[in-house]
Protein 1
Amino acid sequence: MTEQVMAAIDGSQFSEEVCDYAAWASLVLQAPLTFLHVNDNHLPPQERNLSGNIGLGSREQLLAELASLDEQRAKVAQEQGRLMLKEAKERAIENSVSDPASRQRNGTLVETLEELQGEIRLLVMGKRGETAHQDSGHLGSNLERTIRTLHRPILMVTGAFKRPEKVMLAFDNSKTTRKGVEMLARSPLFDGIPVHVVIVGAETGEHRSQLDWALKTLHEAGHEAEGAIRAGEVEATLRAYQEEQDIDLLVMGAYGHSRIRHLLVGSTTTEMLRKTTIPVLLLR
């Protein structure tokens, strides 16, 4: 099965940005682009109080009418999804993507993506979905569950498309971020883009050795790269470096697997995603 760039769209405020970043990634990676829309039939139904002094026949009639309304809602949702996918494909074609595909599924987004992840080279999603509160500090629950479930790179989009000109890798010498360095070194997604490797921690010989390895790997692949070791709280330190260096894309490892690593790293990941104003490429 051909691995592709897959863009999850749902009519949220980020859908256009998801389309644009997905089109950019598809072109640069020379990978097929597929737009995905999932009609979530698992949303909890509205509470229906059918008690009271109505007769059995009336109650059965009401149930039938409610069932008919549910069916109509499902048809409307399906048509809305079809139109969304059509507009997304047209937008991608305007951005020079040839023959983008689309898929519409019923179910939950996370379960659908888990089923399709063998086909995914890169998943592009918005920071929040259509049903999430629009507060800029809020992180969509679908995004968080997807990151924890999928074992594919996920590009989280936060705003209008801007072709990346500087990339920052938050490096902690974990297996995931070492793979991230190697991925950055060989991926056409970052050709010609300067890479900043940042370790948050004390200036020690071990950290300096780790940073030197990362920079050497990137330099040998032909990348312009520089690094820094900064002490401080992880999220605030990375955000300060991003603003100082005018970074426009962040690469970092996602949630860890073990319970201890989840407690230590998971909260940092969530905090970074909640507060960031630039796209984040999450690695597993």
Protein 2
Amino acid sequence: MKTATLASIALAISFSAANAQTIGVSMSDLDKFRTALLNGVVSHGQTISGLKLVTENAKGDNELQKQQVQKLIADKVDAIILAVSDGDLGPQMTKMAADAGIPLVYINNVPSNLLDLPDNQVVVASNEKESGTLETKQVCALLKGKGRVVVLMGEPFHAAARARTQDISDVIATPDCKGLQIVERQAAYWSSDYADQQMQEWLSAGVKFDAVIANNDEMALGAIRAMKKNNIPMKDVVVAGVDATDDALAAMVAGDLDVTILQSAVGQGAAAVDAAVKLIRKEKVPRENNVPFELVTPENIATYLPKSQ
């Protein structure tokens, strides 16, 4: 499904007027992973009789997202699935939904007020302690515990970016990996273009490194693009990302990407819809609903190719 058709669409799945339920879906933006995430929500929603999905794309604008959520509330949707770019927006979004008595499911990004969520608000995400940890442990193994590392971070206020970056530091602090040294660390905002630019700056400044650890695949691919422009053999650098997107898996097959971590957009999307439906029915749903991460390497990539985003 093209991105242009994903924002502000209503999908009506054959339902009777008596049983009709509407779930509003608000996405902070639609980069490659978040588009896959929305597709996961939509595809699972299509399997549930009597369900209507109304989706919105805030295009990276927090104020616009708040306005879109307010509109969904005014339109009296039965539940909201919300992907916020900034977890610190959680308290505001929680209050708006709670005041309206509308169930709220946070998807992918954990809100800062996680521990204070009311009973009809939950989170569907993956445990970020697994993602950066799996990624960095594999890099450490490939470098045999020694080497210089540059780190590309996502949006500074995104919970996943902060957690994955902390995971990197935690792994490097362990006895087996204490020979790794972070020589540079900069935000590239989940973007391949920003990562390309940042890598170009590092290379121009003469930064020496043995590995690139990125908070997501898009940034890993941007770094690869920049290194190729500078005629750096990819066999000489370990590159790692997170998400196991189709582009990342193709880069791994080509021998450019060494490590990625599957974050199942399909799994998160389906779990978020199921949680929203249960909350509408006033059923009990755990506050935290984790979809596991999985390590993907050239050795096991054949198993994961059908699962790509």
Protein 3
Amino acid sequence: MTTADTTPPVSGTRRLRRPRGLTAHLFLILAVLVSVFPFVWTIVMATNTTEDIYKSPPKLTFGSHLLENIRHVLNTIDFFGSMLNTIVVACVTTALVLFIDSLAAFAFAKFDFPGRKLLFGTLLVFMMLPLQLAVLPQFILMSEIGWVGMLKALALPALANAFGIFWLHQYIQNGVPDELLDAARIDGAGFFRQYWNIALPMIKPALSFLAIYAFVNAWNDYVWPLIVLTDPSHVTLQVELAQLHVGHTTDYSMVMAGVLMAALPLVVVFAVFARGFIAGATEGAVQGS
């Protein structure tokens, strides 16, 4: 009596998975290299001299002039003073955007009130308009209330972010069950308690993404601070860095050193909030599987 061969046949789909997986990995590696290259090139230029940058072909290796270029930046502009102003503006703006946008999005997504669809449609229209159209009305408003030249003039126009409200509205609409809110209403919870105790803990991934978005926008804003900040001691980092481009010859190695120093806080913010965004998204995927 012969024993039957119990070895399962190798399927064709399994043989095809490896080439497809290899192609996907190669594509991801290429995408990472393309994304990282501008940051690496900034470091290369910041560690070399302007003469090295102008060479043909350009120097692609790291140099030894980083500390010298950083010293030139610190001697040319008030880097740390403007960075402190930017940190204050970015942190306050981000906190207010998270609170106000999430509150408005929760009302739009889970409560029915007169004019809700009209107001939300108007919000979407404003989201499509270029931000430059609001510069003149904002400046007139800041002038009327006496805030021209003050840092708080940068936070007020960014409070109600149309994209942030839309983003959180879509997330809350699908991610916060109506049954939980109905149960909370039966227990006597009002609007703010439903928002604070039920909605906010469930939308942490969306809030993490919005925090990154709002912080980066506030940190990199240049046009509005350039217009409204008339006091040299209150300028933000991007306005201060623009002063490195003076004269007929620009020291690009010094400029890149300043850009590199200005980008480091953004890397830290992204690392902190991206971890919460990825952890929350992964947790939701595991629970939904």
Protein 4
Amino acid sequence: MSQGAAGSGAATARRRGNPLALAVLAQLGDKPMHPYEIARVLKDGRKDESVKLNYGSLYSVITALARDGFIEPAGTEQDGNRPQRTVYRLTDTGRDEVDDWMRSLLGAPVKEFPQFLAALSFMQVLAPDDAAALLRTRLVALRVAVRRLEDDVERRVEAVPAPFTAETEYELALLLAELRYTEALVRRLGDGTLRGLDEWRARASDGAASSS
């Protein structure tokens, strides 16, 4: 593979690792907008709950997308005495990119690395009782989050077409799965049925003794 091809592949991987870039391309697929309008539309549609949004990152993403030819300036707008704002539009290359990106995201599962997964992987560095107490605290927060999302889905189901609430329904499904798993894990820690619990307790006791 040539250095140019390798560099292009790395750039694509970096860009496609940033959901905010996808959000910008998707919004500009509807109509040309300036960055402030893109941010407003994302917030109004509550897409900022799915994509991390801040103005510094937004302008950096827009600069990179324009540099790579996926979007281009389409003019300027001015609101009262405010400075002029550059309006951007999607290029044909950008339209192909967002189409290909979406097909890849929807059609092919990828390995993700949630922080809770990492915490579970190294849970044994704590004593079992400490881990159980922390997980019980997590359960309280999970139950609150589940109730909030259930209420949100119920309110929106009649007003918003399903494709526009899919991310909320997916988030709720993940939270419910995490809640069920964490409840079961806490239960097994409490009743002693977690496989390897005795060895874990012994290791934690040895570690506490050696550090004292």
